[in-house]
Amino acid sequence: MPFSDELKNATFPEGFAWGAATAAYQVEGGWNVDGKGPSIWDTFTHQKGKIFQDQTGDRACNSYELWEEDLKCIKQLGLSHYRLSFSWSRLLPEGTACNINKKGVAYYDRIINDLLTNKVTPMVTLNHFDLPQALEDKGGWKNEQIVDIFDEYAKFCFQTFGDRVKLWLTLNEPHVSANLGYEEGIFPPGLKEPGMSVYQVGHNMIKSHAKAWHSYNTIFRQEQKGLVSLALNSDWAEPFDPSSQDDINATDRYMAFMLGWFANPIFVDGDYPAIMKSQIKARSEKQGFVSSRLPEFTKEEQNMIKGSADFFALNYYTSRKVKYSKSPLKMQSFKTDKEAEGIIDPSWPVPGVAWLAVVPWGLRKLLEYIKKTCNDPKIYITENGFSLMGPASLEDNQRCQFYRETLQEILIAIHQDGVDVRGYFAWSLLDNFEWACGYSVRFGLFQVDFENPEFPRTMYKSGKEYATIISCNGFVNKKAT
């Protein structure tokens, strides 16, 4: 929908959270200094052929040594909020509180205290993909013991930092961790176990999140008065042929398997979407399995999981057309369970990464969908960004347009659709290590010169554009007010 005249001078709600996001492995570096233990990403990137040009996050943006430079970037943008993640293995090198790394605690204490001194609110993710390798050696997310281990880690963080941190995310994008790590094998631990581990891992992640939420709720909330959720990623999806019932049904399955997989248990009824359960069960029976490949929650677990989030944290990047594609029955993967194929619409511009079509209006539709299907939650958009293939020009006009159009769509969602959006976090503060793409893809509001040993940060034009929108709390012309 075009940005209507009546919204041209609209502003975001008072107290709207203006943020940018990073993740520990992607920016910190310092992978083996000051007592930090290895994470699964350290192990994975040190193997040949796993990452673009065998690049690693060993140094990344060197934020471990250059935090003050990051803080300058945050202040230049005028952010009210900053989302970061803790490196679990920097705090607890072996994954448990048996060994606490005091230098790791001091590092995050410094970041949190500096943010608060500068009137910036931290939002902290406890685990952004980088599980300690010591825990992976014991089965990682496939081992149900991880539920209690994660809860212990979460309680350690709440106890240590919760007097100052009031916005928590337990996990980042469990859908991505499970699918890419255990189905496709392109993220650590690099397993390809189609249609099997992916569901057990997701199951354990949901229970881990819920248990940590309850620990916060019963032990820490009364005194600390914070909020806890988890960051869920989702595309927006529409049928390739709106007149095809097969495509319509496939689109429903696509949304159930992507967003509903984790959102339905936590925000709706404590259980997986009915369409997901019936689809996997039917296929499992035909494949000769005694029971469904999708684990079941007990009634007690359903009661624990339902409602275990204080807000909805959404990571959105793109939208897709979905076409029905019946798969051979002998295949039993996460993808084929959906019997749906997501297709990038060729009319949508793709700036650099093949999967990332630029569709700002898809975010508005997804926000309205979440409002309707997830009991009208408070929503923070915890990641959203535009990729460029590096080295990228500082005059990133396309990305400027992207931020304007995206934030306009959010304004429409707030003012016309009644969606309760509380904040927006751009991905990312800095160009950084973009997982399997290494440093070939750039999402930053600040360019990082990775060839220079000092890793200088320089604001892109889009950073200036974002800073202007923040200063106006929208698109109001300050000179005219």
Automatic annotation (TrEMBL):
Q: Which domain of life is it from?
A: Eukaryota
Give EC number(s), comma-separated: 3.2.1.21, 3.2.1.45, 3.2.1.46
Cellular component, GO annotation: cytosol; membrane
Question: What GO terms describe the biological role, i.e. biological process, of this protein?
Answer: carbohydrate catabolic process; glycosylceramide catabolic process
**Database matches in Pfam families:** Glyco_hydro_1 (PF00232)
Q: SUPFAM superfamilies, per this entry?
A: (Trans)glycosidases
Q: Which reaction does it catalyse?
A: beta-D-galactosyl-(1<->1')-N-octadecanoylsphing-4-enine + H2O = N-octadecanoylsphing-4-enine + D-galactose; a beta-D-xylosyl-(1<->1')-N-acylsphing-4-enine + cholesterol = cholesteryl 3-beta-D-xyloside + an N-acylsphing-4-enine; a beta-D-galactosyl-(1<->1')-N-acylsphing-4-enine + H2O = an N-acylsphing-4-enine + D-galactose; beta-D-glucosyl-(1<->1)-sphing-4-enine + H2O = sphing-4-enine + D-glucose
Q: Does the keyword Hydrolase apply?
A: yes
Q: Has the keyword Lipid metabolism been applied to this entry?
A: no
User: Which top EC class applies here?
Assistant: hydrolase
Assigned keywords, A-Z? Glycosidase, Hydrolase
Name the residues annotated as catalytic in the UniProt entry: 383
Entry's Gene Ontology molecular function annotations: beta-galactosidase activity; beta-glucosidase activity; galactosylceramidase activity; glucosylceramidase activity
InterPro entries attached to this UniProt entry: GH, GH_1_N_CS, Glyco_hydro_1, Glyco_hydro_1_AS
Q: What PANTHER family does this protein's entry cite?
A: CYTOSOLIC BETA-GLUCOSIDASE (PTHR10353:SF291), GLYCOSYL HYDROLASE (PTHR10353)
Q: Give the similarity note.
A: Belongs to the glycosyl hydrolase 1 family. Klotho subfamily.
The protein depicted here goes by the name Cytosolic beta-glucosidase
Specify the species: Acipenser oxyrinchus oxyrinchus
Gene name? Answer: GBA3
